[in-house]
Amino acid sequence: MGALFGTSNTTTYVESSAGIAAGGRTGLTALTTAACFVLAMVFQPFVTAVPSWATAPALIIVGVFMVAPLKEINWRDLQDAIPAFFAATMMAIFYNITTGIALGFIFYCIIKLATGKVREIHPVLGVVTILLLANFILTAYTSTL
Question: What is the three-class DSSP state of 61?
Fold first, then answer.
């Protein structure tokens, strides 16, 4: 449903995970969230009256919350650190969570291939990585036409 309305599937997944982490276990959580978003549309004209710079403090706090889990990454093991670094930084550079995660997957597989640890790549991750690479290549090719 999210893709039909222009939302990336990753964003939909993250929203669902947040609801489950908060204690929601049924579809009622999603319906409640949807009802709140519909109700919020009524207030959209008022929200646009707030200048974008006024939201900066809230965005800084969200950024701090998003960076906190990075401390749990084993930064001394480059096989873990490099894909995590690319995933985190590319999300910010491309302003796209899906692209960041995709590049994290790709770099994880490249590192495993380069170090001779191909057996550590789960078959599903391997297939997804090949599809992601194909998507990036096709997107780059079609944008040059």
Answer: helix
